[in-house]
Amino acid sequence: MADTYRRHAHAMDAEEVLRLRRTTPAAEAAVHLNHASASLADQSVFDAQQRYLALEASVGPHRAYERVAEALEALPEALGALVGVHAGQVALTESASRGWALALGAVSRERPLQVFVGPQEWGGNVMNVIAHPRASLRRVDGRPGACWKTLIDEALTRRDPRAIPVVSLPLIGAASGEIHALAGVASVVHEAGGWLFVDASQAVGQMPVDATALGADVLVFPSRKWLRGPRGIGVLCLSPRALTQFETPALVDVFGAGLRCDVHATPTLAVDDTARRFQIYEHNPGLRLGLLAAIGIVEAIGVERIHARSASLIGRLHGHLRESASVVWSDAPQSGMLCAVFRDATARYLADGLRDVGVNVACVARRYAPLSDQGDADGNVLRISAHALTREGEIDEVADRLHRILTRREGARAGAR
């Protein structure tokens, strides 16, 4: 596989992209430019899941699990290697948001929390701060290209001295595509006695990520986005400091905890000292085997090469959009994502119009980025995201389709006047 994708060598060429598309069953079903929501999985990901289902159908669930248990043990190690942590720091959850919420709930059972977030904080994380009985939310304003170390340092000088500070920032904004400069943030957070949460949902699989170098106490990401893995799996990574000092999670079961039992005494809880305590026993082994296969594809191609190609493709699209007078706001391309707001056409209208002609993009609704400074009349943003398997022709096609939809819209409005 490494030879197939010329691992970590040169930029991806047309032949390599074609080979990648040939092993992606849905690659020709539509022009898929919505990888930031859910990418297209490689055939090997489906094969891994189907092999497990066939095994379970033939020998039953328990015997099937026994036969794949050794392979499953490789997943935390593979995930840890992907983001610069040890296997014992990795827990698998149902989603990135669930992992984030579990970690927040374990910071402290008694003291209040003051959670500092930026404009691009994911809506699910914001919801969990609001739902937390002892947490308060504080927004830190940051313009594109901001130095987050300086902004957070200033914000923490005005923190509530009674509360534990928690700083949560995305590595890439889900409604902007901006790569946030987080270097040095951990040092000021830790100096204030706080915790740094990093949402890497839009980064892992698209660009190199090192949780240890970032100083992240908590780092989360899903399988289904840039890793091109199955839906229904989230990853929670915890620093050694967090594993030592965090409380027992609100939800534990037999996978990450046990009971010390004596016939004459009340049982006592014995919790695992690794990230296992944040993980539950019940899961679908086929999904995890599929994720392991997806990681293999990322490693074979090289995440640096994926980032270079994705960002180059989005740069190409940005060049097309710069020529359009209909664009009110568009982020400068840094990642494989472009987010934009258009004059006289909402993100929902444009996303629906593109879907009708076989192009998949995303309308990022306000509830997903509730603190964002950008949005159309409905508060939404159009997001277009390319991956390594995207063709240059698909980028040109979406630009042309957008132009046609906008021209038709402007003509209809002019006629109505």
From TrEMBL:
Coiled coil: none annotated. InterPro entries: Aminotrans_V_dom, PyrdxlP-dep_Trfase, PyrdxlP-dep_Trfase_major, PyrdxlP-dep_Trfase_small. Keywords: Pyridoxal phosphate. Signal peptide: none annotated. Pfam families: Aminotran_5 (PF00266). Residues 33-397 form the Aminotransferase class V domain. SUPFAM superfamilies: PLP-dependent transferases. This is Cysteine desulfurase. It comes from Pandoraea captiosa.
